[in-house]
Amino acid sequence: MAGIEEVARLAGVSTATVSRALSGNVHVSPATRSKVEAAALELDYVVSSNASSLASGRTRNIAVVVPFLARWFFSSVLEGVQSALLRHGYDLTLYNLSGDADERHSVFEHFLLRQRVDAVIAISLELTEAEVKRLHTLAKPLVGIGGPISGVRTLSIDDTLIARLATEHLISLGHTEIAHIGGSPEFDLDFHMSTNRRLGYESALEAAGLAADPASFAPADFTIHGGYHAAKQLLGAPQGRPTAVFASSDEMAIGAILAARDLGLVVPRDVSIVGVDDHDLSDFFGLTTVAQFPRGQGEMAVEILMEELKPTTEAAPAAPALPYELIVRSSTAVPPA
Amino acid sequence: MAGIEEVARLAGVSTATVSRALSGNVHVSPATRSKVEAAALELDYVVSSNASSLASGRTRNIAVVVPFLARWFFSSVLEGVQSALLRHGYDLTLYNLSGDADERHSVFEHFLLRQRVDAVIAISLELTEAEVKRLHTLAKPLVGIGGPISGVRTLSIDDTLIARLATEHLISLGHTEIAHIGGSPEFDLDFHMSTNRRLGYESALEAAGLAADPASFAPADFTIHGGYHAAKQLLGAPQGRPTAVFASSDEMAIGAILAARDLGLVVPRDVSIVGVDDHDLSDFFGLTTVAQFPRGQGEMAVEILMEELKPTTEAAPAAPALPYELIVRSSTAVPPA
DNA sequence: CTGAAAGCGCTAACAA
DNA sequence: TTGTTAGCGCTTTCAG
User: Fold this and answer.
1) In a 3-state reduction of DSSP, which class is residue B50?
2) Does residue A89 lie within 7 Å of nucleic acid chain C, judged by its CB?
3) Which residues of chain A neighbour B84 with C-beta distances below 8 Å?
4) For residues B98 and B67, what is the distance between their CA atoms, to the nearest angstrom?
5) Distance from residue A299 (CA) to nucleotide C11 (C1'), in Å?
6) B296 contact to strand D (CB, 7 A limit)
7) Which residues in chain A touch residue B78, judged by CB atoms under 8 angstroms apart?
8) For a disulfide at B287, which of A11, A276, B156, B282, Cβ 3.0-4.6 Å?
9) Where is the HTH lacI-type domain (chains A, B) (predicted)?
10) What's the DSSP call for residue B26?
11) Quick check: A48 and B115 CB within 8 A?
């Protein structure tokens, strides 16, 4: 735990020079720099981030706020954020809001205000106005991932387009009876993501001259379990079952595949199924899906933030559109004759 | 962003008193305390953690190091750690080592040394001697979860006992042909966890007078996919298939259930399957399993640390044994007649 | 129980 | 390019 003073002494320079040489931002003569670096290495010197933060006002630490941890999408985004941050020399302080309301409240009223972070990344969070205001009093850059927060720059995939693409894939195979498993209305967590995907589905149908029968919609909770039950309802309907199902998430789509199997239906011969995500398990189940790339989304959020934190930057950089891609596997085919 | 000075002025006391009143550790007269609290509330005052840390040497921040993020066990432990930490007013700084070796190196040589944390929790990490030494030079409390690190206090489940319990469940149902899907040897990540579970399985067999045939073992990688392929091998063996399978993780067990189905076997009529974990999906698949409770493990690690960080505490508190429990669902039954 | 004052370890003007 | 110096905002002796 050597301090900057000892390094300065060993290198034969002042502490200010050590600071400059090690931070790399300011000009220092190459000779001095290497002397300092050698001394630092020899003494195992690592700056105290607290002292540095206090003096400079920069913490090199980013807060990441998530609504869940143990779900594929969130942990994948987090992975991307983490590794990008590490590359930039930043720490990641994690706040998970899946606890009770008090917990959430204290995160916004207390934890985030401790001046411990330079910026915050909010993943798929529906923030209340009070919360957004709180964050704004922080006067720190804030970027959201996964759905528009009013007044906050957000990386967001185009849910309508994604859903439309998935549905069009089914239509192009010849399906006309296409059911949809989407989020139940409570899922406002996801900012109308559910609604937008449903709208995309409906618009694809309409564009093909097909009717969007309300009976072809089954709500679920984005889990395999939920998708399974929703699919059972849809596929077991006595008045004739759909030949294809578009599920708003891969987990629900996998549930649907399992439900079809349990009903004795063969996928894709009897029923085609598409999801959204490209979840870890999707390849295993041969699920056709519209991939989004959560790791990449996390990394992108970090790049935007880094850009914004550079003292040189003026305007906040714009958020580019997020990529997505139809991946056709073995869960979709032409409808039964 | 009011400072302590303003609070002091508003409350009509000195900054020292504000500090004392708000930290709560030292004695302050009730009247003064409430005056200070009112002033702090009015000004929306929140201490600057950097200044506080620098002055006191305590950061109220814990580092958590994980080898993966997007896996059920790790994200569940992390969830437990996070919520317990929040309750105690601590921040959580996350380091995920799933990147390359350089990343890992820089975490240990750089990030963890910045004096940003009071302690570190290492989840299922096989640390090299150099890494442990590094951490010890930190002179910070360190607790591991999930497997013994030499010289580090670790919360660890008894893998041998767990495996034995699962196997005994099968034996007590009357099974004598019991196969095992375990970790492949490379999985040293998990500290001989794989080996220990295999030993537990074998010892249960021996105790029942059954032979542990090496042909009844299939290695896999702890995923559904891996479990599926391993189970296919086991259940498709032409020289007679086992009537039961013990898998070292629920994900592998679920893979085995799916493999059995694909082979036209009915679980549990034709083959019984047990796992370990009580994964999120296990209930859905009706999987009998030995539950471990990762959230609880995370919380426990935090409690131990908090105890240790209390200035009053002398000896490091002992780590209690971790609970586990056999949960019988519908994937196990007596063997076919 | 409370106040005054000396730092915690570093960075950033300002000079030289 | 480098050194000097004054803090960053709080905590903690040490007095009173």
Assistant:
1) helix
2) no
3) none
4) 5
5) 30
6) no
7) 69, 94, 96
8) B282
9) 2-56
10) S
11) yes
Residue B138: closest CA among B113, B109, B104, B106: B113
Per-residue pLDDT of chain B (337 residues; tens, 9 = 90+): 789 999 999 999 999 999 999 998 788 999 999 999 999 999 999 999 999 999 999 999 999 999 999 999 999 999 999 999 999 999 999 999 988 888 899 999 889 888 899 999 999 888 888 888 888 888 889 999 987 777 788 898 999 999 999 999 999 999 999 999 999 877 655 567 889 999 999 999 999 999 989 999 999 999 999 999 999 999 998 888 999 999 999 999 999 999 999 999 999 999 999 999 999 999 999 999 999 999 999 999 999 999 988 876 566 667 788 999 999 999 999 999 8
Q: Do A61 and B224 touch (CB under 8 A)?
A: no
In this structure, is the CB of residue A27 within 7 Å of any atom belonging to strand D? Answer: yes
**For B12-45, b where at least 16 C-beta lie within 10 A, e where not — what string?**
ebeeebbbbbbeeeeebeeebbebbbebbeebeb
> For residue A55, what is the enclosing H or E element?
helix A49-56
Set of chain A residues whose Cβ sits within 8 Å of the Cβ of B116? 49-50, 61, 91
Asked if residues B183 and B220 have their Cβ atoms less than 8 Å apart, the reply is yes
* Stated pTM of the model: 0.93
Task: State the nucleotide closest to B20 in CA–C1' terms.
Answer: D11
- Residue B87 is given by DSSP the state H
Residue with tokens 């891969």: A250
- Domains annotated for chain A, with CATH where assigned, are 4-56 (1.10.260.40), 61-157+295-322 (3.40.50.2300), 159-291 (3.40.50.2300)
Local structure of B168: helix, strand or coil: helix
Q: If you write DSSP's letter for every residue of B122-142 in order, what string do you get? A: EES----HHHHHHHHHTT--E
Q: Measuring from the CA of residue A26 to each C1', which nucleotide is nearest?
A: D1
Please tell me whether any atom of strand D lies within 7 Å of the Cβ of B36: no
Angle in degrees, CA B298, B302, B308, rounded to 5: 150
DSSP-assigned letter for residue B287: -
8-state DSSP, A209: T
CB pairs under 8 A between A and B: 138
CB half-sphere exposure, A289, CA atoms < 13 A: 25
- Please give the angle made by the CA atoms of A239, A245 and A250, to the nearest 5 degrees: 145
Q: Which of B44, B56, B79, B91 to mutate to test the interface with A (most CBs of A within 10 A)?
A: B91
Tell me how far apart the alpha carbons of residues B294 and B81 are, in angstroms, rounded to a whole number: 10
Give, in degrees to the nearest 5, the angle at Cα A274 between A157 and A243. 140
Please state the φ and ψ torsions of residue A246, each to the nearest 5 degrees: -105, 120
Nearest-CA residue relative to C1' of D6: A55
Q: Are A69 and A97 in contact (CB under 8 A)?
A: no
Lookup: tokens for A324: 């997505």
Tell me which residue has tokens 């010197």: A45
Query: Rounded distance, CA B188 to CA A245, Å?
Result: 42
Show Cβ contacts of residue A133 under 8 Å, excluding neighbours closer than 6 positions.
none
Are A54 and B59 inside 8 Å of each other by CB? no
Chain B contact set for A110 (CB, 8 A): 46, 89
